[in-house]
Structure formats: structure tokens, C-alpha cells
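Let us practice reading a record.
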Amino acid sequence: MALNPKLLNDGEVVVVSTRTHAKALLVPLLALVLLLAAGLAIQLLVGQEVVTRIGWVAVVVLAGRWVLWPFLEWLMGAYAFTNRRLITRTGVLVRRGHDIPLSRISDIEIELHLNDRLLGCGTLVISDASTHGRVVLPDIPRVEETKRRVHQLLHDQATEASSRHEGI
């Protein structure tokens, strides 16, 4: 996964690591097909060399915006749950992220639309005790399995904290 190991503290272990489901690439793929079809249509129907070159330059520029950029955003996004916290990193040129300690997570919910169920993904919504309140992780593959694993992490952490408290 694309999570940089330098983000982890000593003794911290990645338990769940994922990125947005590949369904995020369906619209860019469709855009690529349509752009290539438009470029070929211009080349075959117009027949003038200058217009054809301008058409292909436009196809390349639009492909960069509608195909390459969404692919880079998908590729650079990473979500990970460690044994201590949730780490999110998104963005290509400007990186954004959240780090939420597991102890601050108060609720986990999932949203599964019909197309999500067909593709095996869903949205994971993490609620915490901060002023931001929620972190939405869209289109997580195998979202129900991820939710179960995070619940197990939270349970393990609560059990560990309880045993430390009793030992005092």
C-alpha cells in the first residue's frame, strides 16, 4: 500500500491498509475512450493536418485533466488503521491527512448503495470526539470486513486499557 512507513511510530503496526475502490477510475476510463474517439473522428473526418494536430493536442490536454489527474488522486490516496490510530493521506500536489487516535473514535458506520454492493465496496464514516466530528472514507473495498477489523482493534484497545487500569 502507498502509506509511507515513516508515518509510523515505534511499536505501531498497520492492521488495515487500503485506498479508494477502483470504481473511482470508471468515469476517467470512459472519458479516455470518448476522447480517443473524438480525436480519431477529427482525424478521419476533417483531413486537414493543422486541424488534426490541434484536435489531438486538445485530446491530450483534456485526457490529462479528466483521466491522468483522477488516476493520480486515486493512486496517491491511502487510508490505514494501525494498532493506535487512523491515518488518512490524500492529494497529489497538496497532501492532506487526518490522524485520529483509536481512543477518540466514538462510532463507525457504513453506507452501502446498490452499486456499492454490486462492486464490493462502501463508504466508511468514522465519528470521533473532535470538533470536526466525522471522517468520511469513500468507496472502501470490502467495507464490512474493514469495519469488523476496526471494531476488533477498538475492542482490543479497550481491553488493554482496562487491564492496565486494573493493574494500578
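A brief commentary: The mean pLDDT is 90.
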